[in-house]
Amino acid sequence: MCCNGTSVGFVKVERFETEKIQNVLDIETENGKGFFLQPCSKLNSCGCEIYNERPKQCANFQCNLLRSVRENKTNIHDALQIVEKAKRKKQTIEEMIQSQQINLNSNSFYFKGCELRSKYKKQSNPSTKWKNLIDEIEKLNNLFSENT
Ligand code: SF4
User: Fold this and answer.
1) Rounded to two decimals, what is the model's pTM?
2) How far is the CA of 59 from the centre of ligand 1 (A)?
3) For the CA of 47, the nearest atom of ligand 1
4) How many CB atoms lie within 10 A of CB 62?
5) Confidence class of residue 12 from pLDDT cuts 50, 70 and 90?
6) Average pLDDT, the chain
7) Cβ 42 under 6 angstroms from ligand 1
8) Which parts of the chain are beta strand (E)?
9) Residue range 40-55: average pLDDT?
10) Distance CA 12, CA 55 (A)
């Protein structure tokens, strides 16, 4: 859910690795540093296509849930349940966006959430559907902040 842009919007590329990463991935650069937006073009159904060359931020990233499993604070069964819950919530939100026919510019789910919050704040009298949508997004974010 990080590589596919659900919980993470972009990946930073450090100055020392910019050249190496540019050989395997399209990135934006400025002053020697770089970044790329999620969903990552190197994510396929089996995982990361450039696993051995992936950026440092990817290699070091551990969500709270993974840390919690590694520290034996959460068992793997409960962790998988949390992942499934997050996936269901994401699906619900996507269906809500579709049913309300809201046009969004972002490719990633993460930035769609930012766009929706921004649109919501500009409404003086938001409908119940909008309130419910934002409520679901906040619930998913809470799930991520607790577990990712
Ligand atoms: S480079 Fe690999 S690990 Fe990093 S975001 Fe892309 S798919 Fe994920």
Assistant:
1) 0.88
2) 8
3) 7
4) 12
5) very high
6) 94
7) yes
8) 10-13, 28-30, 33-37, 43-44, 47-48
9) 96
10) 8
Which tens digits make up the pLDDT trace of 76-108? 999 999 999 999 999 999 999 999 999 999 999
> Residue 76 carries which side chain, given as an amino acid letter?
I
- Residue nearest atom 5 in ligand 1 by C-alpha distance: 3
Q: Is 3 in the pocket of ligand 1 (CB under 6 A)?
A: yes
Q: How far apart are CA 67 and CA 50, in angstroms?
A: 23
Residue 13 pLDDT > 80, yes or no? yes
For residue 62, give both structure tokens: 């551990």
DSSP state of 137: H
CA dihedral 82, 105, 57, 24 (to 10 degrees): 120
Rounded to the nearest 10 degrees, the angle between the axes of helix 128-147 and helix 109-121 is 130
Task: Extract the tokens encoding 60.
Answer: 């070091």
